Amino acid sequence: MPNILDTIMDLETIGKKIAERRRQDDLTQTQLANRARVSRATITALETGVQRELGFNKIMCILAVLKLDLHLTEENAGRPTLEDLQREGGQ
Questions:
Q1: N or C terminus of the chain with fewer C-beta within 10 Å?
Q2: 75: which residues sit within 8 A by CB, 6+ positions away?
Q3: Name one GO molecular function term (predicted).
Q4: How many independent structural domains does the chain possess?
């Protein structure tokens, strides 16, 4: 049985995905921070992996601005998800 800590997406990974999406949406860190009602320093720390902890509500506000969400699913025991397969296929 895999260790649950090995399968959890950490805050650093979430921060990288937020930075990627923010750039795709042509938003500055300041614009994102203002829309999500958090400080620019929080966005910077999150995107650079410096932020080690962040409240759930703040994360959800940031994700909402970027039109992203979190999915809770059953552990897939290392099998690829549909999204993984689509990315591999270039879709």
A1: N
A2: 2, 4, 7
A3: DNA binding
A4: 1
Identify the CATH number of the domain in which residue 32 sits: 1.10.260.40
Q: pLDDT tens across 29-80, in order?
A: 999 999 999 999 999 999 999 988 999 999 999 999 999 988 776 766 667 7
- Structural domain boundaries enclosing 46: 4-88
Please give the full DSSP string across the chain, using - where no structure is assigned. Answer: ---HHHHSPPHHHHHHHHHHHHHHTT--HHHHHHHHTS-HHHHHHHHHT------HHHHHHHHHHTT---------TTPPPHHHHHHHTT-
Q: Which residues contact 50 (CB under 8 A, 6 or more apart)?
A: 44
